[in-house]
Amino acid sequence: MEERPQVIVAGHICIDMIPRLPSTEARFQIEPGSLMSIGPARFSAGGAVGNVGLALHRLGVRTGLMGKVGNDQFGQALLSMMRSHDPALAEAMIISNNEPTSYSIVIEPPGIDRAFMHCSGANDTLVADDFDAKRWEGAKLFHFGYPPIMPSMHASDGEELVKLFKRVKEDGLITSLDMCSVDPSSPAGRVDWRKLLENVLPHVDLFVPSYVELAWMIGKDCASESDETGRVAASLEQLSTQVLAMGAGAVAIKVGEKGLYLRTKENCALGPNWSERELWHPCYQVNVVGTTGSGDCTVAGLLTAILNQLPPDEALPVATGVGACSVEDASATAGVPTYAGVWQRINKGWTTRAFGSTPDRWRAMNGKSMIAGPNDKAN
Fold first, then answer.
1. Within the chain, which residues score under 70 in pLDDT?
2. Are 290 and 20 in contact (CB under 8 A)?
3. Which of 217, 223, 264, 334 has the most CB atoms around it within 10 Å of its CB?
4. Model pTM?
5. Which pairs with CB-CB distance under 8 Å and at least 24 residues apart come from 334-341?
């Protein structure tokens, strides 16, 4: 009997082209008429579906992917990439004859934060009715990512997104939602994101935005992510209070190099040990090669821990550990090891990053970094 996916990853998908750029002390610039010599390019499945989905697969979780691609060369390349990992990954993909496949060119010079050139393609028209509910039968968890760059999903205060999450929640799955950066000059920049979140979060068990994204959407008076840790900690409490009041069961906020913050409400659907918890875990020390997809890989680690029924003080080290492994490779997911491999590094005393004076409250929230890990496969 064919095993059904444990988790469905849906939402934005694209093919990422990541050229190897030369090291330079100057800021990377493209000048008209110039020729710049660069290295070979790497191609990978990107977006929330590509990054989170393939990271979960590498961690040993049975995963189904539900994104929309065009019936073109890039679409065939994406499907081929997925099938090369496991033919089952691509079975639920949505193929359109009317739109092109989305692609991104990732500009990531050494030592400089990455930038993207992006064609949204078929992601623009994805709606709730594109999804076949039979594809998530038997699954435990549904994760959706990147509605800010999916016009049909953020239109009308998220009407299609709410419709989709209601269906999934009514079918008994744990629901998870991620965001992405919003271009203030784009149509998404004019969306009332607070109103959209108020509409969809009552149907979301786990909300996993980045600090920068969430602060832009609902907390523009918050401290900058680069501010001293105490100010960021206060802003995290403010933001998480608002998110839980909007209806989310739990919020895990990615705080860049400062780590991962978690706060949950009473009767949280993520497990019996997850109710009314507040935790923070710092990032691990690694040699950073590329940061593309690191937030998505962190989410994949957290979802894997939830599927393995770990308590939150064990789940956060797994999440930050997977994110740390991902940045040791230029592509988004190639650096992600097995679940057992993550635990092996944690249990060997993997050193976490220090940020000078850490607030006493954060030290009290800090998850353990030396704990016994469960088996390689998710339950």
1. 1-2, 24-29, 111-113, 355-379
2. no
3. 264
4. 0.89
5. 334/44, 335/289, 336/54, 336/55, 336/58, 336/59, 336/297, 336/300, 337/58, 338/58, 338/59, 338/60, 338/376, 339/59, 339/60, 339/304, 339/308, 339/373, 339/376, 339/377, 339/378, 340/373, 340/375, 340/376
